[in-house]
Amino acid sequence: MRYDLTSLDLFITVAQERNLTRAAGIKHLAVSAISKRISELEAQIGSPLLIRNARGVELTPAGQSLLYYARQLKQTMAQLDNELSEFAAGVKGHIRIHAITSALSQFLPQDMAGFAQLYPQIKFDIEEGIGSAVVRAVADDHADLGIISSHTAPLGLETLPYRHDELVLVVPTEHDLAKRRTVHFSEVLAYEFVGPHLDSTLYGLLTEQAKTIGQPLKLHIRISSFDCMCRMVANGLGITVLPRSAVEPYVRSHRLKRVTLSEPWAHRSLLLVFKKYEIASPTLKTFIDHLRAPSQP
Fold this sequence. Notes:
It holds the Pfam family LysR_substrate. By secondary structure, this protein is of the alpha/beta class. The protein is 44% helix and 23% strand.
C-alpha cells in the first residue's frame, strides 16, 4: 500500500490529542477535512482506526499499530530531511556516536582526527555513556554507532573488533605496591578503592572478579571521570584500576605508578556496535571502515 504522508501526519495528531476538534485547531484545518483524511485511511487499510465517542476518539488495535509505524516513518523522514539539508550546505554527512569512557579517552580522538583530514565536512555528535546505555542508544536509534567493551552484551546488534586495551592497577608512587612489576588482583583487594560508577562495565568487571575470589571490593569513593579517579588516587584516597594508556597523561604530573595485573581478564577488547552494516548509510560505512583499517593501531 502507498500511504499519503500528510494523512499519516494528521492521524498522528488526532491520536495524540484524542480529539478531532483539537487536532483540527493544531493543524489549522476544518474538522471535516481531517475526518475525510481519516476515513480515506480506514478505507485504504480496510479496518476502523478510531472509535468515536462523546469525549473524543480512542484508537482501535489497527489504529495503535498505524500510530506506531507512522511515528517511526515521521522520525525517519525528519532524519532524511536533516541529512539531505547538510549535503546541500556542503556537509557530507552526520554520525552520532555513543561510547564508553575507555574508547573516548584512549583511541577515538586520534582516529577521528585522521578521518577528519580525509572527510572534513562530516559532522559528529558524540556522547559518553556506560556500556549497556551505549547498546540501548544504538538499538533505539539514538546513536548510529556505539563503542563498548567485550564484557558488555550487544543484545543482538552487530559488532566488529575495534581496539584492545589493558587494565592496570594505579597507585601513588609511595604506595606499598608501587615497586611491584606485577600484582595479583587478590592482593589488591586488601586496599580501599576509588571505583567507577556503579553502572559502568568496569565496575561490573571488578566486582565480578572480586566475587570470584571471595573477597569484597572495598569501595571508598565512586566517581565516573578517569581524570578525577587519578586525582583521588594521587591524594591518597585509595587505589584504582584503569586502562593503561588512559592513565598516561597523569603519571608524571600526579606522581602515579601503573602496576601490571597478572590476570587474563585485564586484557580486553573494545567493539564497534551498530544495527546492520549492510543497511548503514554510506557515511557510516566509510567511518566504520576507517576505524577498522589495518593502518589503525
